[in-house]
Design a protein that fits this description.
Blueprint lengths: L25 H7 L4 H10 L6 E2 L5 E2 L3 H13 L4 H28 L1
Antiparallel strand pairs: 1-2
């Protein structure tokens, strides 16, 4: 019997690596997007995007989902006002939540 150590394959382990969530400050969003600091701030105040948390110093931190949200805002901005965009984004969010809830009910009913 060969006792040399062999690398553990991903399939053979039940452990899953937990990747820490990346948080972005407004300055990082500005560097990674075409939006200004003021626009990011305004979109947050308007509820178009949401901060994931705050630092102890009172700075807003955003998670990675903000990039998808900003991309969607850019797409909608071509033909809609910010008020219309807010309504569309809120409706899309409700739809996704509803689908998740439906899926959860089906799963738990089994």
């Amino acid at each position: 019997m060969d006792r040399r150590a062999t690398p553990m394959s991903w399939e053979k382990t039940s452990r899953k690596l937990q990747v820490p969530a990346k948080r972005y400050r407004i300055g990082e969003l500005v560097r990674c997007s075409p939006f200004s600091r003021q626009t990011i701030h305004n979109y947050t105040i308007m509820g178009l995007i949401r901060e994931a948390e705050w630092t102890e110093g009172g700075h807003r931190l955003y998670d990675e989902s903000v990039f998808d949200r900003l991309s969607r805002i850019m797409e909608l901005r071509e033909s809609m006002s910010l008020g219309e965009i807010r309504r569309v984004l809120n409706e899309e969010e409700r739809t996704v939540r509803g689908l998740r809830d439906e899926g959860g009910c089906r799963t738990s009913a089994r």
